[in-house]
């Protein structure tokens, strides 16, 4: 049973002693209305929205999630267990260097403090079928077209320099149910995105505060979306790493919702 709904998250850089960034954003609530407003601010079709996923196991609760689901964004506490496992996993991993149209997955390195919610959203809409809902000449369209040819560091700086992206993010970040923290506050929660490659069909874990995208070695069956058992298993595995520790997780799904269109 998936329980807990943490309503503010920032990024790994929020942890005391973490890297210092030149730019800071107001952290996003893990609130589907805030996430939905931001994707629409960026120029994603109104047919796409975010919604809460209230269980990973109970069919009745899962049935309330509109289908298809194009991406999952998980918010979780940054614990010592997580930090150690992340360090162990990355010890032997090279820095990602992919770029261009042949790239299997679009990944953005996080260089903006407290913006991991934004990076989760960017990963969700830049990959898989959701990419087809980016409207021409929108902010997201320009960001994607400009960043795809760039290697990861240049791509990160391209996003960081976008005043349009910053304005869209700020407008959404101020609309939460709680008083928004300051941009430079320490917020000890983090977002990661799970999404399917539109090229290979492989399932990926995308975290802007790691060395690169993580291919989970799983291909979803024909017709399966990101609420299928293969994708949910990836989220369950992520949560199980805490081994009885802090289980204050929440999950958001990027879905197509035709009910209001």
TrEMBL record:
Protein name, entry field: Ubiquitin carboxyl-terminal hydrolase
GO annotations of cellular component type: cytoplasm
Which of UniProt's keywords are assigned here?
Hydrolase, Protease, Thiol protease, Ubl conjugation pathway
Q: Where is this site: Transition state stabilizer?
A: 110
Tell me the ranges covered by the UCH catalytic domain, including all copies.
24-256
Q: Enumerate the Pfam families for this protein.
A: Peptidase_C12 (PF01088)
Lineage at the top is: Eukaryota, Fungi, Dikarya, Basidiomycota, Agaricomycotina
Q: Where is this site: Important for enzyme activity?
A: 207
Q: Which organism is it from?
A: Hermanssonia centrifuga
Q: Which family does it belong to?
A: Belongs to the peptidase C12 family.
Entry GO MF terms: cysteine-type deubiquitinase activity
């Amino acid at each position: 049973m998936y329980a807990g709904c943490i309503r503010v998250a920032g990024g790994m850089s929020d942890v005391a002693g973490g890297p210092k960034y030149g730019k800071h954003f107001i952290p996003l609530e893990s609130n589907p209305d805030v996430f939905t407003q931001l994707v629409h601010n960026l120029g994603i079709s109104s047919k796409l929205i975010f919604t809460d996923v209230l269980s990973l196991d109970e069919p009745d609760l899962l049935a309330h999630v509109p289908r298809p689901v194009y991406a999952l964004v998980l918010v979780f506490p940054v614990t010592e267990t997580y930090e150690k496992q992340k360090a162990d996993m990355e010890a032997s991993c090279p820095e990602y260097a992919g770029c261009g149209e042949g790239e299997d997955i679009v990944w953005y390195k996080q260089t903006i403090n407290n913006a991991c919610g934004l990076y989760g959203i960017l990963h969700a809409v830049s990959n898989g079928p959701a990419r087809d809902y980016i409207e021409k000449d929108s902010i997201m369209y320009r960001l994607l077209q400009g960043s795809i040819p760039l290697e990861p560091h240049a791509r990160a700086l391209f996003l960081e320099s976008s005043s349009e992206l910053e304005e869209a993010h700020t407008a959404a970040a101020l609309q939460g149910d709680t008083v928004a923290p300051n941009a430079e506050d320490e917020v000890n929660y983090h977002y990661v995105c799970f999404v399917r490659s539109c090229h290979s069909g492989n399932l990926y874990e995308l975290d802007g505060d790691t060395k690169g995208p993580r291919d989970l070695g799983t291909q979803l069956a024909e017709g399966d979306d990101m609420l299928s058992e293969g994708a949910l298993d990836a989220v369950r595995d992520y949560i199980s790493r805490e081994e009885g520790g802090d289980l204050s997780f929440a999950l958001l799904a990027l879905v197509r919702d035709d009910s209001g269109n």
